[in-house]
Amino acid sequence: MADEKFKTIKLEGRVLISFTIETRSGLHIGGSDAGIEIGGVDKTIIRNPTTNQPYIPGSSLRGKLRSQLEKYLGLPQNQRIGMGYIHSAQSPEEYQASRVSQIFGVSGDNSFGTPARLIVRDMMLDAASVDKLNKSGRTDLPFSEVKTEVSIDRVTSQANPRQMERVPAGVAFGEAGDAAMVYSIYSGNGCDPKRDIDNLSVLVQGMQLLEDDYLGGLGSRGSGRIAFTGISLKLRANGNYSVVDDLASMKNVDELAQQLPAIQQTLRNKLKVQN
């Protein structure tokens, strides 16, 4: 059934979106606390096991973009995922109307879905940040700081200190030129390349929403403020996939939003998609 479902879909092109994520406040994306010794940090960060360096999982960034858009658009949370819920189209008609479902995908159990348009990569600390943290000699743990928080029992007034590990403010994830996100444009079997190009505006809106919110945990207490910087978009088109066309470069996500209509028109022209 899966082969039948996708056999008429054609990849028209892929937009390669490169950027760095700069931490404007400490960043906590949780790792495994298994094996933490008594008196150690209560909540640790996720690290690359081969380098011991923190990184941003693609699943964390992708999930936060999706949740921000679902809230902004007021979409019903109707699909259980683990301990929580997400929005997922429940019928072909709803799928055709749901830009979030088209970008991020629906459950593979649904017969009406098409491939998710968005791939989000894991993002590693950039080389300059690794060097900066190695040379500073001021981090509490390798590449990270420890933030102590104190909760107060409202009845007994007893203080309960907790220690949270964070990546410090002022470092960056991602290297220039590396595609952190890949956005695919399809045709056939219910896919519409014009709609896919139009839906790029939704993804950019999600990036703006995330900058005004937070990434990771502890956000309501100051952690997780980030900024997308050094953004560039490139295209690999069907028919000459080995050629990479430069579309645009921007300093930040607001500049991307301003230039997006022109970028979308360039995509329509290069992929021969009618307005």
What is the mean predicted local confidence, pLDDT? 90
The count of helical stretches stands at 8
Order of helices and strands: HEEHEEHHEEHEEEEHHEEH
Q: How many beta strands in the DSSP annotation?
A: 12
Overall spatial form = globular
Low-confidence parts lasting 5 or more residues at pLDDT below 50? Answer: 1-6, 34-39
> What percentage of amino acids are in beta strands?
25-35%
Give helix % range: 25-40%
Q: Measure the end-to-end span.
A: 33 Å
Largest sheet: 6 strands, antiparallel
Report the radius of gyration as a whole number of Å. Answer: 21 Å
> Could you say which structural class the secondary elements and strand pairing correspond to?
alpha+beta
Oligomer: single chain
Characterize the structure shown.
The longest helix is centred in the last third of the chain and has 18 residues, at 253-270. This protein has 275 residues and is of the alpha+beta class. Strands 1, 5, 9, 10, 11 and 12 form a 6-stranded antiparallel β-sheet that branches. The chain has helices at residues 2-6, 58-73, 92-97, 99-104, 127-136, 193-198, 200-211, 253-270, and strands at 10-23, 55-56, 79-81, 84-86, 118-120, 123-124, 145-152, 159-166, 172-173, 179-187, 226-237, 244-252. Helix 2 (58-73) packs across helix 7 (200-211) and helix 7 (200-211) packs antiparallel against helix 8 (253-270). A hairpin with a 6-residue loop joins strand 7 and strand 8 (159-166). The two termini are 33 Å apart. The protein is globular. The protein contains 8 helices and 12 strands.
